[in-house]
Amino acid sequence: MAPDPAAITSNSSISAAFGDIGREIIGAFEALGWAEDEIDAARTRHPDAADTLWHSFALLPPRQELMSTEFVYRSHAVEILERVVAGQDTRPATAAEVCCVLAQASQVTPLASVASGLYCRMWRRAFPDQPLFWESHDAHEALEGARIDELDTITRRKAGNPERVLGEITCAGWHHGVPADCRYAAGQRPLSA
Q: Taking CA atoms, which of 49, 66, 88, 118 is between 20 and 30 Å from 97?
């Protein structure tokens, strides 16, 4: 029996009515909001790239379950958006994605020293405002720095998303239903309000 739509008035009632699917829906909407927040912030930091950043939304879907945590997702989005601005490859895994992969791996088996060092490095890079949960981060770098560099390159490539590319941008001159003077509007001028 389907739940009464009138009874669904909040996130908690959606989750209660639909269980796991409801939680996934709520998480997806939260991630959409976080993505829009980070795009707006990046457009403020980089006004010359504002149009490109607005059209970068498709690069930001979360790919890991752990990205349902706000600070993890936001770090991922910021790194991708900064790559867009710098004209860098958006396909390799972000530091947040590498942390997610290593967190999942650590649930299955203890991480080797090199992998632990990479986890420490990526955590510090992705989440500088979050507390560290280990004491040995500097020791890993001192002992395994070159091997951590190699594992960093390999992990970013293997955990990356080969389809995460911006591609050709076209625009009808409207952003979220509002006329926009977007440089990708292919000579079209937005209709005046």
A: 49
